[in-house]
Design goal:
single chain, 361 residues, alpha/beta, Rossmann fold, 7-stranded parallel β-sheet, 5-stranded parallel β-sheet
Length: 361
């Protein structure tokens, strides 16, 4: 059984203890050290070499954002931002993700008296998946260095490989739906700003986030994208050249109106059995019978299996599916289950996702 060392960084001794107790519930995780501020965090990352770090944002002497940037520049290790401030200031969270944080989590969600066991399990699974990916990448990097004498042969093989076995031409899709979770905001940033103004299909994005985060996310993307980006609202009519980010805390459905237009229906839906709000499955299930073979779905990095059932619906109606390859995923969970179920038309790293999308739309 692989084990992963966690460095817990927080200026509160109470919080350090609470977070440590949660982490120690999983036999694959152990506390390799604690730090009270950013200065200590940097020193202990260099000395203890943890597999993953949980980092508070607001701390004395050196805050978490400053420490994060220093760690990413000088001794990269996966960092999960763990703070209450992110609940009040999503902008801080997005800046942390842009600076290299692997993920973020709200302390209050973990420390509620009535916290559900599945919430704790999901948090611990995220830590393990991120740490595992980082360790695997480090091993692969060392192997590449040790096998550097074969580089020319490898490059020749790559050049001789076909780009993929899927024939695709533009104009085959009328709607693009993108689903993602852990690592999603950064992945979206490498895709959404690249769409040109003349993009002739609407785009719906389902990103697993806490309530209150999707509206600032949409506003942030609206400032850097060629297309209009907004948080989806109940009753919105899908229009080409618009990106709709499904609101956290609700489920997003698609309805075909009598005039042929497609409207978004946003509901709380307590009857829907899903831990995810929004759920990729729910939205794909409602979109597939409307768009049929004209639906393109993209599954990016993320924990768990949300999207699998929805992709089954997409294929039932002959739609197309692109999934992100393991090598670029922060967590290879959601794309993996879709790929291993044989539902993906093509699997490519993040750097190739946009080009694949444009071959269909």
């Amino acid at each position: 059984m692989q084990q992963y060392g966690v460095l817990v960084v927080d200026d509160s001794s109470f919080m350090r203890r609470c977070i440590s107790l949660i982490i120690e519930k999983d036999p694959q995780l152990f506390i390799i050290g604690i730090a009270r501020n950013g200065i200590e965090a940097i020193e202990k990352v260099q000395r203890l070499k943890p597999d993953i770090v949980t980092m508070d944002i607001e701390m004395p002497e050196m805050d978490g954002m400053t420490a994060l940037k220093e760690i990413m520049n000088n001794c990269p290790v996966p960092v999960v931002m763990l703070s209450n401030r992110t609940d009040k200031d999503p902008e801080t969270t997005f800046r942390a993700l842009e600076a290299g944080a692997a993920d973020f989590y709200l302390k209050r969600v973990l420390l509620e008296e009535t916290v559900k066991p599945e919430i704790i399990k999901e948090f611990l699974d995220r830590l393990k998946a991120i740490a595992q990916k980082a360790r695997k990448s480090e091993i692969e990097e060392k192997d590449e260095i040790s096998n550097s004498e074969n580089v020319s042969e490898i490059l020749e093989n790559i050049l001789n490989m076909p780009e993929d076995s899927i024939e695709a031409k533009s104009g085959l899709a009328d709607l693009l739906i993108i689903g993602c979770s852990t690592g999603g905001p950064s992945a979206l940033q490498s895709i959404l700003p690249r769409f040109p103004k003349e993009t002739h299909v609407p785009i719906v994005v389902l990103q697993h986030m806490p309530p209150g985060f999707t509206k600032p996310l949409a506003e942030r993307f609206d400032t850097i994208c060629n297309l209009r980006v907004k948080e989806a609202e109940d009753g919105d009519i899908l229009e080409a050249g618009n990106i709709y980010i499904a609101p956290a805390g609700y489920q997003t459905f698609l309805d075909k109106k009598t005039d042929g237009s497609i409207a978004l229906r946003i509901e709380d839906c307590p009857f829907v059995e899903s831990v995810y709000k929004p759920s990729i499955n729910v939205t794909l299930d409602s979109a597939a019978p409307i768009y049929k073979e004209r639906l393109l779905s993209v599954i990016l990095t993320g924990m768990g299996n949300d999207g699998l059932v929805g992709c089954e619906s997409v294929k039932k109606y002959n739609g197309r599916i692109i999934v992100e390859a393991e090598e670029s995923c922060v967590v290879y969970g959601m794309p993996r289950v879709v790929y291993e179920a044989g539902l993906a038309d093509v699997q490519v790293p993040l750097s190739n996702i946009f080009n694949k999308i444009m071959r269909y739309i």
